[in-house]
Design goal:
This protein has 4 helices and 2 strands, in the order αααββα. It has a two-stranded antiparallel ribbon with strand order 1-2. By secondary structure, it is mostly helical.
Length: 97
């Protein structure tokens, strides 16, 4: 977890079980995702129509790459590595800023 999102993990320093850990990781991921959406929207407002289209294509490509690297479906279920998704999302926020 990156420090900028660590504040969202209050009471998550020592989860009692895997479900608590997943809750905490999800909470931190959602905060990172919110920051990413804010950064994306802020940047988008500064761009012309063509630049916005390029930004959108780039973001969709980034999302596909994130999903490919951080999740999989093995037939029994869909699995997401929340640490991977959070780190990639935080890195994307840094890219936009």
């Amino acid at each position: 977890m990156l420090p900028m999102f660590a504040w969202g993990a209050e009471n998550c320093d020592k989860p009692n079980n895997d479900f608590d850990g997943l809750y905490c990781l999800t909470k931190v991921y959602l905060e990172a995702d919110k920051e990413l959406n804010n950064s994306y929207n802020k940047l988008s407002k500064l761009l012309n129509k063509q630049q916005k289209a390029t930004l959108k294509r780039g973001q969709l490509a980034w999302m596909r790459e994130r999903n490919d690297q951080c999740s999989y479906n093995d037939g029994d279920g869909f699995f997401v590595n929340m640490s991977c998704a959070t780190n990639k999302t935080a890195n994307r926020v840094n890219f936009f800023e």
